[in-house]
Amino acid sequence: MNRDGxxxxxxxxxxxxxxxxxxxxxxxxxxxxxxxxxxxFIIGGVGALAYDMAKAQRAFEATGDxxxxxxxxxxxxxxxxxxxxxxxxxxxxxxxxxxxxxxxxGFVPEGVRFLTAAVDIQSxxxxxxxxxxxxxxxSWVIDDRVxxxxxxxxxxxWDKLLLSLEGAAYPLADGSGRSMRxxxxxxxxxxxxxxxxxxxxxxxxxxxxxxARHVGKFxxxxxxxxxxxxxxxxxNAASLVVTYPDSxxxxxxxxxxxxxxxxxxxxxxxxxxxxxxxRSASRGRGTCISPALFWLPNPLTRSSSSSLPSSAARMVxxxxxxxxxxxxxSI
Length: 331
Hints:
By secondary structure, the protein is an alpha+beta fold. The protein has helices spanning 45-63, 67-76, 92-96, 155-166, 195-208, 265-281, 302-306; strands spanning 13-14, 20-21, 114-122, 125-133, 139-148, 169-171, 179-188, 214-218, 221-224, 226-229, 240-243, 254-257, 294-295, 313-316, 319-322. Helix 1 (45-63) runs antiparallel to helix 2 (67-76) and helix 4 packs across helix 5 (195-208).
């Protein structure tokens, strides 16, 4: 197979007869995708690959756990894995198609009471989502952007990120010239080696310059304007738990937040920051957070739709609403 195979570049396609069509996309970077089928070192050959895949698929159908299926697809076959859709899930493209033409990125529409920012950490960038929140948890996408960075090794990139959000303000859409500042922000503190250390250091520097401020206690936990977030392993605990890993060093504070079922990191951070800020804005009066409408501007950028939770959403009377995410954590 390797001897008789044909390389097909980006922008090209190959027919079942082996005819390559399309124009090759020009690039200064040479990259090659070699799947498990092309490896000469597979024990048991192609038959073993097929057997492992069939076994993993049967296990998924029987248990609903795709751990083995994901592992076989990525590690044995060398193919990208896409999680199986569950009943009631929504397609990101379908959601993007329902974006509101009257809403614009970068502007705060009527109904927004406060803003929060959430940051997902990738190997070479920060993905930032700013959301506006209204009554009963109704929310709008205000900003969605990517900042090129080296999260694992660059303190300056982290400082640039937090400084840009700590002082961020967005103009109101009413044309009054007024603007609204970001009330609170949360960012992922997990990832490749070095990310957690950099995330903690960035928080300590933010606290030193009073970007991260303690604003009291809400529902029995400390409230902060900046929250480093980390997923927990359990799904049956409180929605947010604030922990201090080193109790002897109060300057080394970490806000640990639990993992949400079937949700992206950006979305988890966004919803958790909202919960924290909503209680803060209501001054701890225990205001109920109910399912609410979620408004998208048009045109909609890539990560706004792709970071939306599919299995945590439902459609009621033609309107998109949310279930309260189940999260957990520990002190």
